[in-house]
């Protein structure tokens, strides 16, 4: 499994927690920062998935 998948998931979870804490506490900066980190984590996770898919396809074609 590509490292970006695990790192992306960690950032996604961490960002979601920050976002909720920001909402509950009324801290807009923390809320927005959390949202950005969550979405960056999703993107990183998708990059890792694409890398894994490409690697698997390449291995399939090689035989």
From TrEMBL:
Domain CsbD-like per the UniProt entry, residue ranges: 4-55
Protein name (record): CsbD family protein
SUPFAM superfamilies in the record: Hypothetical protein YjbJ
Highest classification ranks of the organism: Bacteria, Pseudomonadati, Pseudomonadota, Gammaproteobacteria, Lysobacterales
Taxonomic superkingdom: Bacteria
Pfam families: CsbD
Listed InterPro entries: CsbD, YjbJ_sf
Family: Belongs to the UPF0337 (CsbD) family.
């Amino acid at each position: 499994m590509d490292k970006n998948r695990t790192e992306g998931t960690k950032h996604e979870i961490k960002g979601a927690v920050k976002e909720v804490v920001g909402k509950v506490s009324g801290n807009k900066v923390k809320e927005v920062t959390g949202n950005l980190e969550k979405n960056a984590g999703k993107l990183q996770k998708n990059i890792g998935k694409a890398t894994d898919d490409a690697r698997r396809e390449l291995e399939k074609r090689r035989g």
